[in-house]
Structure formats: structure tokens, C-alpha cells
Amino acid sequence: MQEDFHYYATYAAAYIAGYSHEESMEICYSAQFVDVCSYTLLTKLKAPLSAATTQLQLELMNERTDIVGLQNITRIWSSFHFLPRDLYAEKKKCGKRYRDKYRLICGPNGDLLVDTVNIAKNSSLQAVGIAMHVLADTWAHTYFAGTPSYVINNTDFYFYELLGENEPYIEKSIKFRHSPTEPDDIENSIYTNSLSQSTENSIMNLGHGRAGHLPDYSFAKYKYLPAWKDYDEVIKDNPADYMKAFCQMIYAMKYLRGEISTFEKETYAEDEISQWKADIDQILRKRQLNACEDWKKFGERLSGREIEDFSIDKYQQQYIDAPKKDKDYTYLGRFFIAAMRQKSMVTNKIYTSGNLIAGFSVDFAKRGFKGIRDYIKLLEAFKRNGNE
Asked: Taking the model in full, what pTM does it have?
């Protein structure tokens, strides 16, 4: 997903869920910050590098693809952008190496989603925002895995947009090109994707790179042949999936606010959006590269307040100027703690499932500090406030 959904749509969902304007702004900022919190930024801020929630293109190009580098990539992308649906999924007639990657395929309503929402319970608004980013991406990034893998993430030349709201759809062949500086040409169904690389662990085979930005556009409905499905056809209906993502965010945040006692999978706050459903559906189906303006207008109509545009610089000076002992209490300090906690949880779940792709892990909440310097912060936060 993009800023339009992670920032503006998340604001709207938070407000509908009952958060105030100010709280909704903090939540949506955190949700969008997941897409910019890179090693480069953390180095500039002299913040813990283990709090990285994304990697810039240049960082990825310089990343090693040996076992250590691959584990690092997987910890970031599987924890925040491609949350695995089923770490115990079965696949017949395959070896363990393939099965381990197969089990990292992203999808909604998995057990890890429940864990992600639950660790944000009674925590900071920053933790809520991170959880909403992860939740939303489970819908957008379905069928792709957050680890470089040709045998999982590659696609075939067979790729068609499905135009029209009802069957029979008009099928339009999608043309892919490799020109990152040119915007996608949605009128002519020309999209940029990553270069085809048959090397299994090439960075070009990370996530949905082979499908370009199609998974990130709410209007996109398409069919294609994914490698993990032995190049059998699947259909991806983003307008329907994004609608479920929006409703599930509202439901999850009502739970996080304490209005609902438990968070259940496959449950959506559909009644809460009944009066706005047509407006939301119209935004989701509108063919445009960026829906920020439409979502912003919708959110401002809900609250009657101005939604300031996202700025990566907003909280940086506050963090830089804060004394060392107070940095964890700043906006970004709380984000970093929540990010490390999410990454620690997901990595530990992958490891305890018998899968070493994300590396070795221990549960810090149960066993404490185990040799990773930045994660001392997690133990300190845990001791300071068990609910943080």
C-alpha cells in the first residue's frame, strides 16, 4: 500500500473507531512512518538500527545476500510488510528449504495478525499505527513473501487487468517495463516492475517486485501466474480486499480502545461504515496513481478538522534534542520501541516454527536480553512499563 491508505485512510479508520482527531493523527503518522524508517534515517538520528522497518533501494542494493544478509532482509520485510499467514502451512512434494519460504507467503487473517494486534493492546499510539500498517499490508501484499525468492515471488508473462465491476470482465494485457523514473501508465496498463533475475536470492525477487506496484493500487483487479502456485492462475481483487482492510482496521482499533473484549480473525466493522460505504468504494475504485487527495477530503469531512500532510521531518528534532534518558519517551522513541517489539515477536514466531530464514531469536519478554545491543531498549521498556 501507499501513503494514501497508510496515512489518510488510516486516519479515517481511526476516527471512525473512536479515536480523537489528535490521536488519529498520531496513529496514521506512525502507520506511514513504517515506510520511511530506514537505516539511513536511524543513522542520522543516532537511533537504534534494530528499529528499521524498511530498506531504501540503495540500502537493498548494497545488502549482502549471504545467509546473514538474507536473514536481516527477511526480519524487516516479513515483520512489517509481508506478514506470513501460516507458518505451519503444508506443501506436498517439496523439500524443507522450499517449504520454509512457502510458509512466509503473506495473507490476511493469520495467527500472526492476531499477535500483531494483541501486542499493540495497552501500548502506545505508535504501536497502534504500526499494527495498522502491518494489517493493511496483509491484504495488499497477499501471495508474496517478504524474503528474496525466485521460486516464490516470480511471475509469468501472463498478466491481465480485469476491467469493469462485474463479470464478465474486460481483460487487458499488462505490459511491464523496467524504468523506475517513469510513472506507471495506468491508462495503457503499462507498469514498472523489477528486472527478471533467475538467481533465487536476488533482491529483484523480494516481495511483489515482479508485479510492480499493482498490489499497492486500490483500483487494481488482475489475474496472473505466481511461481509459488506452480504458475496456476490466481485473481487479485484489490477494491474488495482494500475495503476489508479498512473495515478490519476499524474493528481492530475498536478492540485496542477497549470497546471490544477480543480480536477475532475474519471480523470486520462493516456496520460502522454503512453510511460512507459508497464514498469509500468510489475512492478505492478510482483509477489514479495516488488517492491521497480523495482520502484526505474524506477524513476531513468525518472529523471537521484539517489533516496535515505527512512530513518525515516532523518529530526528528524533538528526538535529537531530547536528553539520552528521555529519548524513549519522545514520539519517535516510542515508535522505535514498538517497532523493535513487533520485529522481535515476528522473528521469534518464525524461529520457533522451525524456520531459520529470519535467523535465531529468543522471546525477550520471557528470557530478557540475549546479546543484541539495541534490544536492551526492549528489556528496559518491559521493566519500566509492562504494557509498553
From this structure: 0.92
